[in-house]
Structure formats: structure tokens, C-alpha cells
Design goal:
By secondary structure, the chain is mostly helical. The protein is built from 9 helices and no strands. Helix content is 78%, strand content 0%. Helix 4 packs antiparallel against helix 5 and helix 8 packs antiparallel against helix 9.
């Protein structure tokens, strides 16, 4: 088992199983046209590919190629759906760019994992591009602070302050990766934060509403983002600027 890519693979498997259960594309993949021919069949194929890619990513012998497959698959969704939407429909809306950044981070996590083994120079470029994604996450936290605060469990105090703080942490981690200043530490802290989101924010919401597809989706995306950041952290050494 490849422990470096374990979390990344498990996130993909979770999304794939969810897709098979509901018979639809993952919510983060939307909007897939409703009139797409054989839409449900294609959704189940997509879900199956996520499961296969996740399993291949976890198994040591195929880890790099599994990561490449998942990274390529996520990239298709960025280019086919979210990027056109952000550019043409809502170019001034940070939420649309947050969707681009979310899937781009998942794509880059897989591509960096493969590049670290087969194309080290590409992995370096991928790590810096990955840093752009948490910067956008941070901007979204600031732009939609009230919504972000509403996601925080009631037992945690100062939810609005936490929304701003996590936004600032996203931006600091992303800028560290872009600049190449303590990038390994930055990636590990980003992974830890995404993992904390999955456990503290999303898991309790899944337990409270197990029939809500959106809650499962958000949890598996958080797990996948944690895994992507962990892959990035495992492929870089800190160089203090």
C-alpha cells in the first residue's frame, strides 16, 4: 500500500461509491447537461473510473499511474465544465473560481504525484500551480465569510473569526508554495487543515443527515484535498528563502 497517496485514493473511492449509489455525476462535477445522451450510464462509468483510479493510487505498484489517471480525470472536468463557466458565465464571482480551484487542486495533486516519479521538473511546476488553489480558497473564505462561518459547528466559538483565520491560512500556505518558501511545511499544514475540515465540520454533518448527498460529497472532497496536499508535501524539500 502506498501511504503517501492513501488519503487521495480513498477520497476518489468515496466519490466513486457515492456516484454509483445515486446514479449521477458527483455534485462537484456539475453542471453536466441534463439532456446528455446516456447520462446515467456515463455517470456510473465515471464513478467506476474514480474507484479504479483510487484503488490504483493506493496500490504501490500502480500508485504513480493511478495518481496520473485521477489527475487527468479531474483535469477534464476543470476544462470541460468549470473553467468555461468561470470565464464566460460568472467571471467576477469568486465562487465560480473556487470551483475551478477545488478541482484543479485535485488534478494537480495527482499530476504532481506522477511527476515526482517520472517527470521531476513537471512536479516542481505543478507544486507552484497547486499553490494558486488555496489562495483562491482563502479569497472565497473572505468573500463568503458568513456562509463559511455557518458551516462551523456551533460548539466552536467565534465562528466568523475562524472563517477569516482559515481563509488567511489558506492564502499563506498557497503563497508559500508559489514562492518556494518552506513549501513542505506549507503543504503539510494545508493537508492538516483540510483533514480537520473533514473530521470536525463534514463528518458530523454526514452523521446528522446521512441521506443528504451534498454532505457526503463535501466530506469526500475535503478528504481528497487533504490527500492532494499530502502528496505535494511528500514531493518537496523545504528551502528557506
Amino acid at each position: 500500500m502506498d501511504r503517501t497517496r492513501l488519503i487521495y485514493g480513498l477520497g476518489a473511492i468515496g466519490l466513486g461509491v457515492l456516484g454509483l449509489v445515486v446514479g449521477d455525476f458527483a455534485l462537484q462535477w456539475q453542471p453536466v447537461p441534463k439532456d446528455l445522451p446516456a447520462r446515467e450510464t456515463l455517470a456510473r462509468i465515471s464513478a467506476g473510473l474514480l474507484i479504479i483510479g483510487g484503488l490504483a493510487t493506493i496500490w504501490s505498484r500502480t500508485a504513480a499511474w493511478g495518481a496520473l489517471a485521477l489527475g487527468g480525470m479531474y483535469s477534464v472536468w476543470v476544462v470541460a465544465l468549470h473553467l468555461p463557466n468561470a470565464l464566460s458565465v460568472r467571471p467576477n464571482d469568486i465562487a465560480s473560481w473556487n470551483a475551478v480551484a477545488e478541482l484543479s487542486a485535485l488534478a494537480l495533486g495527482g499530476l504532481v504525484g506522477w511527476g515526482a516519479v517520472h517527470r521531476p521538473a513537471w512536479a516542481e511546476m505543478g507544486r507552484r500551480l497547486f499553490g494558486l488553489c488555496p489562495v483562491i480558497f482563502g479569497l472565497a473564505h473572505f468573500g463568503y465569510a458568513e456562509f463559511t462561518a455557518g458551516m462551523i459547528p456551533a460548539w466552536l466559538p467565534a465562528s466568523l473569526a475562524l472563517a477569516y483565520m482559515t481563509g488567511a491560512c489558506h492564502m499563506a500556505g498557497g503563497l508559500s508554495l508559489i514562492a518556494g518558501v518552506v513549501p513542505r511545511l506549507a503543504a503539510r499544514l494545508l493537508a492538516a487543515m483540510c483533514g480537520a475540515f473533514a473530521l470536525v465540520l463534514h463528518l458530523p454533518r454526514v452523521i446528522a443527515a446521512p441521506g443528504e448527498r451534498i454532505e457526503w460529497t463535501m466530506m469526500f472532497i475535503a478528504v481528497s484535498l487533504c490527500g492532494a496536499a499530502w502528496i505535494v508535501s511528500a514531493t518537496v524539500q523545504d528551502r528557506r528563502g
